[in-house]
Write a structure and sequence with these properties.
Blueprint (H helix, E strand, L loop, with lengths): L22 E6 L2 E6 L10 H16 L5 E6 L4 E3 L4 H8 L3 H19 L5 E5 L2 E3 L1 H8 L2 E5 L3 E3 L13 H9 L1 H10 L3 E2 H7 L4 E3 L4 H13 L3 H11 L1 H8 L2 H11 L3 H12 L5 H9 L11 E4 L6 E4 L15
Parallel strand pairs: 2-3, 3-5, 4-6, 5-7, 6-8, 7-10
Antiparallel strand pairs: 1-2, 8-9, 11-12
Helix pairs in contact: 1-3, 2-12, 3-11, 4-5, 5-6
């Protein structure tokens, strides 16, 4: 009698069944496409975006009718500009311990993408900034439109780009170029990115899809198990640098959110003004404590007994009585 196979525990789903709100997900002709759908913020990802991307990556990994995944952003202005700084400012400068949890979501999303078991093409259709470049480097191949620019922004907004950029840029473009991007936070052009090895192809915007489709069709014609293990083997140096540092980065960033730098950098970003970096440097040079918004927590109130009052506060925040330094 013919045997009947049991149903797979890893059955893929119809993309429409997920009800995604912040990404577009489709599967057709052996190719899965994930597009960040937040063009109003230049495709910066929120916590919800990361969760939806993670779901799509798991589904694409399990689906044997998917040979290649293409990652991109909606519109022609931006591929991805990293995390939503407004969300960071609103949530994590107030609850720094929650940033550690957020980093877990981010780390999981990047790990699912890098360990998809299938090649991933980054379709770079505009600005690639901050964490957007970390997603670019998590992909296996990258095709950029001519108007695309790439930059890192961490030290300009009070953060450190240790969610992939500090680990993978030196491997990808070399140590000196990596330091230039990471320290100066200046954009490079698509042509420069091609010369440096940060992307594989640069084409006119009108030819972006045809170039990505051509590359994907070639990958479909490669043996799936062979390409899966080739990807795993080539990932070695990225895995080594990632797994030995990301836990430290996750903890340090969460702790750093208790300090003034992320508060000032992200508030300035939200308010669209220059950060007061020079003022903070001058305060330190005078012997002050720029890590604190209103000075170290050293004062006490003789009236109500409140302790840990900021040094620069002239009145008690509890009872309103004048505070003597």
């Amino acid at each position: 009698m013919p045997t009947t196979q049991s149903p797979s525990f890893f059955a893929p789903a119809d993309p429409q069944s997920f009800g995604f709100e912040e990404i577009l997900y489709e599967k057709k002709d052996w190719v899965a496409r994930v597009s960040i759908n937040r063009p109003h913020v230049y495709n910066a990802y929120s916590t919800r975006t990361l969760r939806e991307m993670s779901q799509a990556f798991v589904d694409a990994s399990w689906d044997d009718s998917v040979a290649v995944l293409v990652l991109t952003g909606v519109g022609d202005k931006a591929f991805c500009t990293g995390g939503d700084v407004a969300e960071y400012y609103e949530n994590y400068t107030k609850r720094p311990h929650d940033y550690w949890k957020w980093m877990g979501e981010f780390q999981q999303c990047l790990d699912l993408l890098r360990n998809l078991g299938k090649p991933v093409i980054a379709r770079l259709n505009g600005v690639v900034a901050g964490g957007g470049n970390e997603f670019n480097m998590a992909c296996d191949l990258a095709v950029a439109a001519e108007h695309c620019t790439i930059l890192q922004v961490g030290p300009k907004v009070g953060s450190v780009p240790c969610g992939g950029a500090t680990q993978w840029l030196p491997i990808t473009i070399g140590d000196r170029r990596a330091r230039e991007m990471l320290f100066l936070c200046e954009k490079i052009t698509a042509k420069q990115a091609l010369d440096w090895g940060l992307v594989n192809r640069v084409v006119p915007a009108a030819e972006l899809d045809s170039c990505v489709d051509e590359m994907a069709s070639k990958l479909v014609e490669r043996f799936p198990e062979c390409i899966r293990y080739t990807k795993q083997a080539v990932n070695f140096w990225k895995d080594l640098s990632w797994h030995t540092t990301i836990g430290h980065g996750r903890d340090w960033l969460a702790l750093h959110y208790t300090s003034r730098e992320p508060y000032e950098g992200m508030q300035a970003f939200v308010e669209k003004r220059p950060s007061r970096i020079r003022e903070m440097r001058e305060e330190a040079a005078r012997g002050g404590s720029p890590e604190f918004l209103w000075g170290p927590w050293v004062n006490s109130c003789s009236g109500c007994g409140a302790r840990g009052l900021p040094a620069e506060h002239k009145f008690c925040g509890v009872c309103g009585q004048p505070v003597e330094p």
